[in-house]
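Title: Prediction job returns without error message
Component: structure pipeline
Severity: low
Priority: P3
Assignee: unassigned

Description:
Job completed but the reporter wants confirmation the result is attached to the right record. Sequence as submitted:
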Amino acid sequence: MHGNRLAAKVAIVIGSSSGLGRAIAIAFAAEGASLVICADLRPIIAGASFGAEEPAVPTHEFIQKQYGETSARFVRTDVTVGKDVEKVVQEAVAWGGRLGIMMNNAGVGGTEHHGMIHEMTETVWDNTM
């Protein structure tokens, strides 16, 4: 599948190494995004295949194989660090000329033992969001 709904768009997908984020990054490329920046802590999240096609291949490399060498790049990004987020945006603009889409799909683990959402402390909530 290759569409053009996102033709000439530069997209950042934070949390793109596995699961829904990986699927979104691949879908953006399939819909014609000129560049997909795959942003995450690591290019591959071990043991998190979730039925993905070629889970051992980093998302940006999978996209490059399907849509060309310049269609995707990986940028290590920790969304809890403001400078990392600034850096990924700056790199997207430097490589692609502009930024058209920014998708945050990053998740933070460790909240499962803090009870229901309305029972979380403000500190846990702030870290999660």
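Comment from assignee: result matches the submitted record. The first helix runs from residue 19 to 30.
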